[in-house]
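Researcher: Go.
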Amino acid sequence: MNKKDIEKKYIKRRKKIAFLTYIFYNVMRIFPINKKKIVFTTFEGDGGYCCNPRYIADELLKRDKGFELIWLINNTAKQFPPGIRGIKNTFWNRAYHLATASVWIDNSRKTYGTAKRKNQLYIQTWHAAIGFKPVGLFREKLFPKIAYLVSEHDSKLIDYVISNSEWCTRLIPDMLLYNGTIIKTGSPRCDIFFIRREEIYRDIRSRYALPQDAKIVLFAPTFRGGSQKGSRKVFVEEPTLDFSRTIKALEQKFGGTWFVFLRLHPQLAAQFNKFPLKNGVTGMIDVSQADDMNEIAAASDVLITDYSSSAFDVINMYMPVFLYTEDLEKYIKERGKLMWDMHSLPFSVAEDNDELVENIEKFDTEEYKKKVDEFSQEHGVLEDGHASERVVDTIERFCSQLK
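Model: Structure:
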């Protein structure tokens, strides 16, 4: 059987499952909608209390309006604050709670075949705002047919997609195959940078038993692979990034004692209890199992990544970002043409350790801040610490109109 026939067979099977899923969701309509129930999911259930949904939930808890907050989770060992109930993300639980909730909040696609009722609100926060990686139609021939079908189905359910910029608002229709309402709220997950950074900066150092004056470089390699083809690949060999040289360069440039925080994408971290390095690296702490990336980012001083959208998040703190793109050509071949010319951005780009060290040595704080401001102004970025409030205002307006 050739590759095309295998794909057709796979799609046929997925469509059959989706049809049965759709029928079951409609059967769930025998249960009434609870206008006070809100259901959250992150990264298809692999994420814990994280990303944009976390900060929307925080704002709901803060307002204390009596909502029942349900979080669908694959790993029930994940912890949630009082007022949020973690529920095992089984087919039955997912169907029942989604069918009976007034509001859905998600940062990834719903299961193919999911059905939504009238008088239900679905807000898609997505898990990246401005980013490097091509999504949806921007992947062109590399966009799998099943991914197209899943995206198309999910987007028909969505009522609002949130945006943090004119750039996102302009591109979301092709990125998510979505033709509905886009609301420019900012990114709820970036609110922490404006309202709690000093507190988090101290707390994370205490949590990981670091000196309060310790400096942290966050190394966040991006997600590889995808669920559409049944495989999720990750950087499992020892990184080619020379951490010893990098730390030495950071200490010479910025002063202080530096530690490395290693962070995997939540869907990849869910597969590993520990990042599979061949050799230990002095001063490295694996924070991949920590639920929320932006909490870790708020406590960091520098970010090193390849193609992660976190780079566009942390510049809201003017945090230095150094791109390390050792496999740029290979990545583009596998993923598709990137959304940006890497060299047009505020970040320096290195393809090997020598370039990375040189970029650290040449970093100019004032020039960097100027480039960040110009970038934000040019692309209409809205990040001011009030995104969660705007989203919750939308939820409350919707719920207040329900009978």
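Model: The chain is about 40% helix and 15% strand.
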